[in-house]
Every structure is written in C-alpha cells, then in structure tokens.
Automatic annotation (TrEMBL):
A single BP term in Gene Ontology: nucleocytoplasmic transport
Lineage top rank: taxon: Eukaryota
Start-end of Low complexity biased regions: 25-37
Pfam annotation, one family: Ran_BP1
Basic and acidic residues compositional bias, start-end: 90-110
Lineage: Eukaryota, Fungi, Dikarya, Ascomycota, Pezizomycotina
Record-level Gene Ontology MF annotations: GTPase activator activity
Cellular component aspect of the GO annotation: cytoplasm; nuclear pore
RanBD1 domain span: 93-230
Compositional bias annotation for Acidic residues: 80-89
Gene3D superfamilies named in the record: Pleckstrin-homology domain (PH domain)/Phosphotyrosine-binding domain (PTB) (2.30.29.30)
Residue ranges of the region described as Disordered: 1-114
The protein's name in its UniProt record: RanBD1 domain-containing protein
C-alpha cells in the first residue's frame, strides 16, 4: 500500500464541522421564531385586555366595589342622623274641622207601650190589582199594649232595615182564618193598616216556622181582641 492510500482523506475531517454548524443555525432559527410568536401573542392579549394586565384590572375593579373605611363611616353617620331626625319629629295635633252635633234620640212611638207577644214570621199582602200574594217582609211580629189606654196594636218590622210592614189595632171584627193547605199560616183583613202612612184596607197573611208558633200567635191575637173590645165599648 502506498503512502497516498494510508493518508486520511481531508473531506472526512471537514464534514463533521459542517453538520454541527447546520444544527446550530436550525436551533437558532427555532428559538427566534418561538420568541417572535410569544411577543406577538403578548401584544395581541394586551390589545384586547388579556393577559396579566386584565387580572390586575379585575383586582382593581373588585377593590373599587368595596367601600373604604371612610365611606362606611359616612354611611353609618348618615343613618344615625336620619334616626335622630325621626326621633325628633314633633307630635302635631290637628283639631277636627267638622264638629259632630249632639246625639239625637229617634222615637218609634213604642216607648209608651209594653210588649205582650213577639214571634219571628213572614208577612204577605194580597195585591188586588195583580190578584196575587206579595211578600211584605220577614221579621218579628209583636203585639204592643199601651201603658195608659191599654189598647193593643200589631206591629211588624223588616229585618235589618226595621221598616214597618204592618201596623194596625187588633179590633174585634178581625177574624183569623187558616190559610189553605197550611197549618202554620193565618189570613185576616185589616180595615185601617197605617204601615204605608195613610190608613188603608189590607188583606194580610202571616206564616210561622211551625204550627205551634202559629197557634201561640192566634191565642195572643184573640186575647188582644177581647181586651180591645171592652176598651172600645167603654169609649163609645
């Protein structure tokens, strides 16, 4: 073998450094690209309120919502002042503009009478024009005897309104007749009923809750007739 063949080739010595230089350039390019991308990303987040700056802003906003110590003290002071103002409001008394008049006693002309009978019932009046019975009202029918002259009259007032629906003397010529088909109802004629103001002839019917109450009314009615008959005969 000749000396030329045993001598290392120069090309092999120069290939290794070129490979190392190529890797170094590639790494540098990669690092530069990564740095550039990071810078661009930070700039984009900064432009749109992102990144660390946004977190600081949020922390600042949260701190702004909470009132400071001086603000709290001012609010508490204001509340105390309002309470003091409410406590110091004067007690003002106003006199009424309209003065009530004295109490007026309403007279029913029953003050000089004593009650001898009272029973709850329903009263009807026969209408001659329509030829039918019409209800006059529901209430308490009473027999009232005058304390001085002793005469007895029949008075009935409606419930709630207390309006008079029957008012006449129990005279001897009146006759109680049982209503057809009922054992708790009576019919009679009053020649001078003054419940409407002027004396007027009326045909009345009264109905009770049961036959027992109806019979009690008949007994009291006949008794009043007998007493009035004696009084009227003395007057004549």
């Amino acid at each position: 073998m000749s000396e030329a063949e045993n001598k290392p080739k120069a090309v092999a010595a120069t290939d290794a450094p070129k490979t190392e230089e190529t890797k170094t350039v590639t790494e540098q390019a990669t690092e530069a690209a990564a740095a550039t991308a990071s810078a661009v990303k930070d700039n984009v987040f900064s432009m749109f309120g992102g990144g660390p700056k946004k977190e600081k802003a949020e922390e600042k906003d949260e701190g702004a919502d909470e009132p400071s110590g001086s603000s709290k003290a001012a609010v508490a002071k204001t509340g105390d002042e309002e309470e003091e103002v409410d406590d110091k409001e004067p007690d003002v008394h106003f006199e009424p503009v309209v003065h009530l008049t004295e109490k007026v006693d309403t007279k029913t002309h029953e003050e000089s009478e004593e009650q001898t009978f009272k029973m709850r019932a329903k009263l009807f009046k026969f209408d001659r024009d329509s030829r039918e019975w019409k209800e006059r009202g529901t209430g308490e029918v009473r027999l009232l005897k005058h304390k001085e002259n002793g005469r007895t009259r029949l008075v009935m007032r409606r419930d709630k309104t207390l309006k008079v629906c029957a008012n006449h003397y129990v005279v001897p010529d009146m006759k109680l007749s049982p209503n057809v088909g009922s054992d708790r109802s009576w019919v009679w004629n009053a020649s001078a009923d003054v419940s409407e103001g002027e004396p007027e002839a009326q045909t009345l019917a009264i109905r009770f809750g049961n036959s027992e109450n109806a019979n009690l009314f008949k007994e009291a009615f006949i008794k009043a007739q007998q007493e009035n008959e004696a009084l009227f005969s003395k007057t004549d």
